[in-house]
Write a structure and sequence with these properties.
The protein is mainly α and 211 residues long. 62% of the residues lie in helices and 0% in strands. Helix 3 packs across helix 7 and helix 7 runs parallel beside helix 11. The longest helix is centred in the last third of the chain and has 24 residues. The N and C termini lie far apart (55 Å).
Length: 211
């Protein structure tokens, strides 16, 4: 069993305990996105990209709290990676999270590909589905047109206040198109962004909200 196969086996047990917005299907879609982007972006370390994708939500504080890093470290310990490759994967994972717009800079093409691949899965039809899956798991309202989307918030503020699912579109999802960092990611994000705008317009009509 190679490192990627072993990593996949180990992370599946963890993602089984996450809701549908961050389950292993999410990982599979991000992996597919990363493969698409990689084909267009030139020579990259595909093994590093795939391992970072497989691990990128293991330490997500929304699910793992303070234990997430320990789980990530325990898995990395079993993969027999060189110190350089191991640190590379950790750096990529730390640069993926949106964190209310306070993410760390993606310094390598591999980090940029993983970030864009993950963010593509946060927008479009699947992004809509994931937003409402997460909101449902947290007991949040579908929408609240009286809410004002927050701007210039701290990472703590972003994570702590439970706004409605639709408000999350304005605080994150609709911002991602302009935050893509690879040329391929930017192109792929356009249609998904337009789909979300059309969805919100239709939702406003169905909930009697004036456009």
């Amino acid at each position: 069993m190679n490192a990627i196969e072993k990593c996949e086996h180990l992370v599946k047990d963890i993602y089984l305990h996450f809701d549908a917005s961050h389950d292993f299907q999410h990982i599979e879609r991000v992996r597919h996105n990363a493969q698409m982007i990689s084909k267009e972006e030139g020579l990259v370390r595909l093994d590093i990209i795939e391992l970072a994708v497989l691990l990128h939500d293991v330490s997500d504080v929304k699910y793992s709290g303070n234990e997430g890093k320990a789980k990530e470290t325990a898995i990395l310990d079993q993969l027999q990676l060189s110190p350089t490759d191991r640190q590379w994967i950790v750096d990529i994972i730390e640069s993926v999270s949106f964190s209310g717009g306070h993410e760390k800079e993606a310094l390598t093409i591999e980090a940029k590909i993983v970030r864009d691949a993950d963010r593509l899965d946060a927008i479009g039809a699947v992004g809509i589905a994931r937003t409402f899956a997460f909101g449902g798991a947290k007991g949040r309202k579908l929408y609240d047109w009286s809410e004002t989307a927050r701007v210039n918030m701290s990472e703590q503020e972003y994570r702590s206040k439970e706004t409605s699912s639709v408000t999350h579109f304005y605080e994150k999802l609709l911002l991602l198109k302009d935050l893509m960092v690879t040329e391929t990611g930017k192109k792929l994000a356009l249609q998904r962004h337009e789909f979300m705008l059309a969805f919100i317009d239709q939702l406003k009509i169905e909930t009697s909200e004036k456009l």
